[in-house]
Amino acid sequence: MPDNHLRPGARRVQDELARLGRDLKVVEFDASTRTSADAAAAIGCNLGQIAKSLIFRAEPSGRPILVVASGANRVDVMKVEHELGETLAKADAQYVREKTGFPIGGVPPVGHAERPVTFIDRDLLGFTEIWAAAGTPNTVFRLTPQDLVELTGGRVIAVA
Hints:
Elements: H1 8-19, E1 26-28, H2 36-43, E2 50-59, E3 64-70, H3 77-84, E4 87-90, H4 93-100, E5 117-121, E6 130-133, E7 139-143, H5 145-152, E8 155-157
Parallel strand pairs: 2-6, 3-5, 5-8
Antiparallel strand pairs: 1-7, 2-3, 2-4, 6-7
């Protein structure tokens, strides 16, 4: 689907990528890319190449925390808490939408309503290209791990 026909959330991501000076293209699929497995199947890539965005709520500050993890990994919350110096609480759908402006299953690593503290899974750095959600449950964009670090200002850590 041409990018001038992107849904509003995906359009916001595409516009944010352009604003940040990156020539990265949001792609919309007919199939869901809501989960890492769905995204890898739709794209035709390795599960590990999916850069899944997980939002947590820091306690007691209430700050949004973004963990961008490899689709093949399960986040060890205690490792992230150690790096952050706060406890992580699960974020419900309302909190995620309020802090990011996007629905669960479509949260991109950029363009959030409130800039989160960001941690990036070091395992993503082992790939030449990765894929991240782009604002809706069926849109993604391709980028390099270095792009991800530069775009988010995230700290690279072991999350699994």
